[in-house]
Input
Amino acid sequence: MQNGAQIEYDYSVAKAFTFSTILFGIIGMVIGVVLAFQMAYPELNYLAGEYGTFSRLRPLHTNGVAFGFCLSGIFATWYYVAQRVLKVSLKESPFLMGVAKLHFILYFITILLAVVTLFMGITTSKEYAELEWPLDLLVVVWWVLWGISIFGLIGIRRERTLYISIWYYIASFLTVAMLYLFNNMEVPTALVSGYGDWYHSVSMYAGSNDALVEWWYGHNAVGFVFTVPIIAMIYYFLPKESGQNVYSYKLSILAFWGLLFVYLWAGGHHLIYSTVPDWMQTMGSVMSVILILPSWGSAINMLLTMKGEWQQLQTNPLIKFMILASTFYMLSTIEGPIQSIKSVNAIAHFTDWIPGHVHDGTLGWVVFMIMAAVFHMVPRMYKRELYSKSMMDTQFWLQTTAIVLYFTSMWIAGITQGMMWRAYDEYGSLVYSFIDTVNVLHPYYVIRAIGGLLYLVGVFMFAYNIYKTATAGRILDKEPANATPMAA
Output
């Protein structure tokens, strides 16, 4: 790479998205803890009337974490990483700077409106696609703006080689654009019938077709929001923080194309034993198992990047976050394919093992990696020393304990549910009633809620550490040095 020391990077938009990452992360995870305690103690559903019920709050939690916290983190890292690996500053293009700022403004407005409308109960009721059509149009606008930023910066770059992280950001932009447009095709009911609220709509698809399109989108929204751009982050931040070169660039390319070709076919595993054609269910299962290869390819590549340098885990908590994130990525991407095998799915589906799987991936992989990226970026964006390394280390161990409590309780709860639901006596009658399973699971729900609360405490520690770093950290004459003097 060319030496980018003379380039004055502009981090104003990256800072704005970092702020929204922390804000929406806190909102989404506070609601998540409330939901966890509601599951353990159902009477909590009625303390705030209809606006405090599980059904009203859950879409706020999922959208707040996925599209508030996670997307903010993706955009923050893009506007930081892209300038540095492409060797170009946003300052050099007033047009792209304007695009980036408009991107943030429209995005922030959209997420705030999403919080308000979902809280009011205005929803399409489609998983991960609850926003009604006016907000969908806003999403399309700022997603296109992000695309202009991506290809605009690539077009004026000084570094001719596109580092692998850029590949993953491009893939996220293109695939989510396709998925979002096709799944969110809807017809405003007032426009068609003349009745109903102006913002209400119905899907253009119906029945099994709607289910197929929804889970083609839903599973790949996880793949290309929770996976692909997070891999982009770790391919940049782990080598930068450790001073190690990526173990295998060829493996990174192989894993990239494998992930893109296979992931798009795996959504059918959400519809096993449903009314969709059996061959589609089988294809979803098979592709999910094949998906282990590119997923583990990326994770193993990251772990091997630390080959010979494992002692850094003793001195650098930030690297611990990223290595454990890779480990949880491996765990989550073998757990999902196992759950998609039909015989296993017969036990796992509709049980708490499923949210256990989702959360060990989200909390262990996605959130850990985004927090690690923010920990790396903020001292460099503000040219201030990290406020407290010991607080970061305490946060790591607290949240690691929280994740273990969370997913183990949900694994046990889920498998217990699945086995109790399938238990028959000699007359072919069910041995247990539904309420029997609810009573048995109560202690596991309490453990999950405690795990979630501990994790939330870690999030507040993270937010405080970042705030103090940006406002009170020791001012540095130059940005913090990496482990070795590598690239920009």
